[in-house]
Amino acid sequence: MNSTISPLRRFGAGLVIAGIATFGTVAVAPAALAAETPAVESVAPAPTAPVVTPPTPKPGKEAKFCTAEDLDAFAKESARYAQQAAQMSDQADKARVAADSVKKQAKDLKGLGKKLAEEVAKGLDKVAKAFDEKAKDLLDKALFGLDCTIQGGPRF
Q: Disulfide-capable partner of 135 in 33, 38, 84, 88 (CB 3.0 to 4.6 Å)?
């Protein structure tokens, strides 16, 4: 019986202590407020309107206009990037064909051989995806790699 009363006693004691603290602050607060001497209120000066200054303009890049040499160099690079992109696309197609071939052969296999063949096919699919992404990046360079402005046209 002692073990069941002990938690109840602790809970009750906690409530009593919380109640004493609450009633003590309520009972003392009005007396403490009445004992205060009124303070002299100081009036803060009215805020002035903030001064707005325009931001300093950032130094911008001067437009670099393309010369004939720049355009020739870009044409050569663009052709090279397009050729590399075509090679990457061919490699991706070959990897997909190989993956399909491995998947067909994996149907006849059993156990560990089948698992290995499936993993090889997944790897070939990932390789094909990587080749496609690289080809896309190269085509983007070939189309949008010019870093100067053509006179009479938009800046790239």
A: 88
d(CA 53, CA 127): 57
Residue 50 has pLDDT above 70, yes or no: no
pLDDT (0 to 100) of residue 60: 67
Q: Which residues of 51-77 are buried (b: 16+ CB within 10 A; e: fewer)?
A: eeeeeeeeeeeeeeebeeeeeeebeee
With 0-12 CB in 10 A as exposed, 13-18 as middle and 19+ as buried, what is 128? buried
Report the predicted TM-score, pTM, of the whole model to 2 decimal places. 0.52
Residues ≥6 apart with Cβ < 8 Å to 71: 150
Instruction: Pick the more confident residue, 17 or 44.
Output: 17
